[in-house]
Amino acid sequence: MQVTPAQALAGTVQPPGDKSISHRALMLGAIASGQTVVKNFLPAQDCFSTWQCLEHLGVKISSPDHYQTVLVEGRGLNGLQEPEQVLDAGNSGTTIRLLLGLLSGQQFFSVLTGDASLRRRPMDRVVKPLQAMGAQIAGRQAASRAPLAVQGGKLNAISYHLPVASAQLKSALMLAGLYCQGVMEIEEPVPTRDHTEKMLQYMEVAIYKEQNWLRLPGGQQPVGKEICVPGDISAAAFFLVAAACLPGSRLVCRNVGLNPARTGIIDILKQMGARLEIRNQRLYGMEPVGDIYIESSPLQAVVIAGETIPRLIDEIPALAIAAARASGVTVIKDAAELRVKESDRIAAVVKLLNNLGVKAQETPDGMIIHGTDQPFRPAELDSYGDHRIAMAGAIAGLMAQAPVTIRQPECMAISFPDFENILLSLRTQ
Ligand code: S3P
Q: Cα(205) to centroid of ligand 1, in Å?
């Protein structure tokens, strides 16, 4: 993919449905009673991985109107069937980790795998507590890497302090918790996205929250509902950063999910001096949404660390481009989790910036970025097959001296199949 320098971005954009919420709507719909109707589902590769795995488990999922609505025929808590084939989660960490939790509670055998990237990612954070609950899980490297074989069965509730701030881990344990005898207790070190607990509560499952503790009594069956999926702030992030950086830009992102566990990017862009305003805040189903108005302005460097990190973990590739355009030195720390995402995002982002002529260094848990007011150097950028690295490279291309090439751009379809077209439509030249 070639990206030519742009003068500015202008117009209105509706980001696609939220990826995290789309996965959860299919999975919770699958074990609910009755039908679940999903509105504004994200029709992207990752969510199709979840869709296909659930079909192999006997769940009927369909869309009468090209994904504007998706219908999930709930099979009830104990209605899933033993899959005849290996379940392939593709590139999706959310699919494999949440399904590990769900499958641990089933009275049957299943095998989960994924693509080369997913097979490199750590699964022991999920496998260990599930084994402590009574699930039998075997796999490569002491069951820490996929493929993983799960013999589910009777589970006992445990009280568990999450060793990493991970919504995927928390959600996997909540899904297993539905199949437990007793009350599952989970403590997070730092709050992470709470879409699973919100959706479960909306589907009439009782969950008790107290500070960083969650308590979920087992044996509860979700009730099928209409689920509205807000626009994905993680997709909007690339346009927000590009509009903040490119002089003369003016953009509106409509119907963007504004769950406080996801809006770290808004706080940081504002701290950097972005001219950003949220209007028309409202509830869309169970999640807050709003329209984000943004205009370009000079940006200053910031420190991104601590409890903010889980609130913008997926936005760091985009924010790194903003940091490269800011005056001063931006420091990102407490983000070692980036090393085990779809790619090693610390290494990938620093290499991308260096290729563009930006001074940046890796640290064990983050990076240091020296902002520049010079246009980026034209370069060939590797996406490492990581959708968010590819899209970060594409917005950097808008700010380069001459066209930039992105290698393996197809991976953008993992979360945002329409990214290139929308970006083209927003260019003023
Ligand atoms: C997600 C949680 C985060 C995030 C990922 C989606 C989710 O991962 O990076 O893109 O849907 O729960 P971790 O749970 O590994 O932090």
A: 22
